[in-house]
Amino acid sequence: MLAKTKENYKWYALSCTTLGALLSVLNSNTLLIALPVIARALHASLETIIWTLMIYMLAVTVMVPAIGRVADIIGRKKLYVSGFALFTVASLLCGLVQSGGQLVAARFIQSVGGSLMLANSTAIVTDAFPKGQLGRALGINSMVIGAGAVIGPILGGLLTSWHWRWIFFFNVPLGIIGTLWAAIQLREIIELPEGQRFDWLGTSLFTIGFTFILLALTFGDMVGWHTPWIVASLVGGSLLMLLFIYIENHVDQPMLDLSLFRQRLLAAAYASNLLNGIARGAVTFLLIFFFQGIWGIDPLWAGILLTPFALAMMFVAPVSGILSDRYGSRELSSLGLAVSAIGLYGLTRLQINTPMTVVILWMVIMGLGSGFFFSPNTNAIMGAVAAERRGIAAGTRTMMNNAGMVISIALGLAMTASSMTPEAMQGLFAGTQVGSQGIAVQEFMNGLHRAFWLSFIISIVAAIVALMRGPHEVYYQETGSGSNKA
User: Fold this and answer.
1) What region holds the Major facilitator superfamily (MFS) profile domain (predicted)?
2) How far is CA 236 from CA 201, 231, 253, 385, in A?
3) Counting C-beta atoms within 10 Å of the first and last residue's C-beta, which end of the chain has fewer, N or C?
4) For residues 236, 241, 246 and 251, what is the CA-based torsion angle, rounded to 10 degrees?
């Protein structure tokens, strides 16, 4: 076994979490490219394919905060390693399915493994690195995520041209390596608090209530907002969440520490994270519709066209992380969201005959903005909490981002599909109707513009919210003192 001095351990820990992040991003981006092909191969409806994508995001959104709290109680290593192993097994199952329903079920199992990794990844890095180096570490992590986002779509196109099942089989050897590496290298370096209890009632209320709300937001426009089960989900979920808030304010050891939201810095950082997810979440998904359905390009070239965003983010993320260690997160986070808004505005001008170079330009601008936002914002969140609260702090950050993306995809699909028949949307997505020969192109483009306008407005609001964290940031120190950063 490699020697693990205190100085060296932080790099081993970072290598474990970046490998997990790389696997997760590769999985998401390769799958996104392959969805139209999978729909045709499994004879799956558009609703089933959307479930394939959304079940993972919904499950992660709901489970990560609870898992983060469990990790604060029992430790992070065992949960992270278990998540890596489960994700790997589920990837194998995904590659063996014979129907759309089986794929949705396998993706749910995969989401449990992904949740165990996501809930602990950032906290493991924060435990291992001193405050002055945390932004740098998170920047490296973001750079690897960006690299995965660059490689993923191209790899997805290549694997899909061979067979779509390799989208999932490809994860298995990486997952085995990652599981073994994490099991060998990770350790618990933070002393676990004694006498901690898990809030089962609060967790149950949150899980059920939030699931109901997200399901209603996701499928309300598709089946009709007046449909009984949509109304029941919204009302019931809202009541359960109100009860959850009441319970969490009256128990000694809550699942979700609501005091996090009473701290100005954290409230603004979490809110801007949520709004960024809503602004950006649907963009890639809708561009896949446009590239493959309107332009009629194959999965490989569609994947290549998605890489400028990720490349820009990959190069900027480590720089913004280092800058946030020195100058704080407020201006950098707000600048990133404002730059992203410029790119989104460009996409509102997208037309069927828009030159490819122009589309690439707007995607690069969006990537630059995202790179300037993520590392500083995460640095601010993780640097502002004590070690025993890092799991729930990281879990809440992931929950906010994923909830935003779920809402974004639901809204984006609803706005795009509002003026089209279900048959036209199905044909567009599956690639059986391409260009002006098969679908009402102008109706689709009008809906696409509405979705991008909404994303632009929300990104502007997010930039303003990011500034509301205040001009100074207080970073938690293990001694109990704080240090201010302008």
Assistant:
1) 13-474
2) 16, 8, 25, 33
3) N
4) 120
**Statement to judge: residues 80 and 222 lie in one domain:** no
CA distance 237 to 228: 14
The H or E element spanning position 476 is strand 473-476
Taking a C-beta distance cutoff of 8 angstroms, is the pair 265, 474 a contact?
yes
**Separation of alpha carbons 31 and 199, rounded Å:** 35
340 with 209, same domain: the answer is no
486 found inside a domain: no
As for how many domains the chain has, the answer is 2
3-state helix/strand/coil string of 120-167: HHHHHHHHHCCHHHHHHHHHHHHHHHHHHHHHHHHHHHHHHHHCCCHH
Q: Which amino acid is at 203?
A: T
Whole domain around residue 139: which residue ranges? 6-185+255-481
Question: Contact at 8 Å (CB) between 429 and 32?
Answer: no
Q: Which CATH number does the domain housing residue 287 bear?
A: 1.20.1250.20
Q: Which of 176, 211, 243 is the last residue of a domain?
A: 243
Which of 277, 372, 363 has the alpha carbon at shortest distance from 315?
Answer: 372
173/89 Cα distance (integer angstroms): 11
In the numeric block, the tokens 């990844």 are attached to 121
219 and 333 housed in the same domain: no
How many whole angstroms separate alpha carbon 476 and alpha carbon 288? 42
* 191 belongs to a structural domain: no
The answer to whether residue 190 sits within a structural domain is no
pLDDT by residue for the chain (486 residues), tens digit each? 444 466 688 888 888 988 888 888 888 878 877 887 888 888 887 778 888 888 888 888 888 888 888 887 888 889 999 999 999 999 999 999 999 899 999 999 999 999 898 888 878 888 888 877 777 787 787 777 777 777 877 888 888 888 889 999 999 999 999 999 999 988 877 666 666 777 888 888 888 998 888 778 777 766 778 889 999 999 999 999 999 989 888 887 787 777 778 888 888 999 999 999 999 888 888 888 788 777 877 777 877 888 888 888 888 888 888 888 788 788 889 999 999 999 999 999 988 888 989 999 999 999 999 888 988 888 888 777 777 777 777 778 888 888 888 888 888 877 877 666 666 666 666 554 444 444 567 778 888 899 999 999 999 999 999 988 766 555 544 433 344 343
